[in-house]
Amino acid sequence: MKYVLAAIAGIWMADGLALLVAPRFVIARVREALALSPALLRWEGVAVCLGLLLLWGAAGLHYEPLWMVTGLAMVLKGIFLAFGPEQLRTNVLQWCLQREDVDYRFWGLALCTLALLLLQALGWLGRE
Asked: Are the beta carbons of 91 and 5 closer than 8 angstroms?
């Protein structure tokens, strides 16, 4: 389970660094991908699964309330994007994809922070 949680941290770190370094490029690629294949939102099932794994696997780790809230947010976001009302989902996605670069950089910083905290909680960074 530690390796699955470390993989989640790796995904967060990769996404976070991409948003920190080149937010405009990343969001442009997301817009293009959604325009070409709106069915990409079905990948949100992966977010639901990873959120459930985070909820289950983070029991007993440091910062446990943070992992419970984060896992629940992943599950709810995934369910909303996969099964939410089409018009509301479209409006939310449009709003999210029209932010300023600095907003994406803050999200990137938050993702990097979550990744480092999870790796530290797993004992992979620093001392326990």
From this structure: no
| pLDDT tens, per residue, the chain with 128 residues | 899 999 999 999 999 999 999 999 999 998 888 888 766 666 788 889 999 999 999 998 999 999 999 999 999 999 998 888 989 988 998 999 999 999 999 999 999 999 999 999 999 887 65
Residue 120's Cβ-count burial label (10 Å; 0-12, 13-18, 19+) is middle
- Residue 69 CB: number of other CB atoms within 10 A? 12
Instruction: Indicate the burial class of 35 (C-beta count within 10 angstroms; 0-12, 13-18, 19 or more).
Output: exposed
